[in-house]
Task: structure prediction
Amino acid sequence: MAQRKIISIDHEKCNGCGVCIPNCPEGAIQIIDGKARLISDLFCDGLGACIGHCPQEAITIQEREAEQYDERKVMGTIIKQGDNVIRAHLLHLKEHHQAEYLHEALAVLKEKNIKIDLSQEFPCHGSGGPAVSGGCPGSKVMDFRQKAGPSAQVKKAANADSELRQWPIQLMLVPVHAPYLNNADLLIAADCVPFAYAGFHQDLLKGKTLLVGCPKFDDLGIYQQKLGQIFEHHTILSVTYAHMEVPCCFGLVGVIQDAIARSGKKVLFKEVVIGIQGEKIR
Result:
C-alpha cells in the first residue's frame, strides 16, 4: 500500500447517472446498487478524467493509502474495448505526462501485436461530440477568423478599464500571506479564459482578487497545498472558478473544493464555464 491520489465518490450526491463511466476507460468505476462505485484501487490512476463529466459534482480526488495503480491490468480491460478506447487512454497518459505508464501500455500492446495509430482522428472519449485530431477538444486546432465582426460585448470590453487589483496573479507566485487575500472574493481563472472571454474584466474580475493557473500543465498537487494554506490563513468570502469547457480544465474543480473542505470553513463556491469560441456556457 502507498499514499497516492485516487478518486473519491460521494454517494450522497451520486444519482447513478453513469456519465462518469465512459470517461473512465481504465474501468475503475461501475454502477452498483444505483450508485457509481470505485471497484478497485488498481484501476484508478488518480488523474481525474471522470471528474468534469459528473453533473452532480460527486467525484473528487483525495490522497490516501491505496493499492498501487497497475497499468498492465488496466490495459487488459482497455484492449477489450477497441482501438478508439486504447487510443484515448494512451493520449490521456501522454497529456498528463505519465511517461512510465505510457511505456508500460505500449509494451503490452507490442506483446499482443496490437498496433495503434495515434495520428488517426477519433471521437473524444465520452464526449458525444465531433471527431477531433490527436485527442480531446482542448488540443484541436480550430480557426475562428471567419466569425462575424466584433460583438457589442467585445466593443464594450475594448473601451473598459482593467479591473485587476493586485500583483502577482499567477497562483504559483502569489505569497500565501499576501494581504490582498484577506476577506477576499477570489476569482481562480484557468489561464485561457481571459483571452477567450471578452467580458472577463467586467463580468468576472470586477471586485475580485485574481489567481491564474493552468490545470493541464501545472502541478495540481502544489495547487491543492497552496490553496489549502490560503484558506487556512485567510478569511475567504467566496471562490469563483472560471475555466474553459475542455476536459483538462475540470480537474481543478475537485482540487478547489477539496482545499475548501480541508480548511473546515464555509466558503461559497461558484463555477463558470467558457466555451472555446468565447461564449459563457454557465
Notes: Helices lie at 71-79, 83-95, 99-111, 152-158, 193-196, 200-205, 220-233, 251-263.
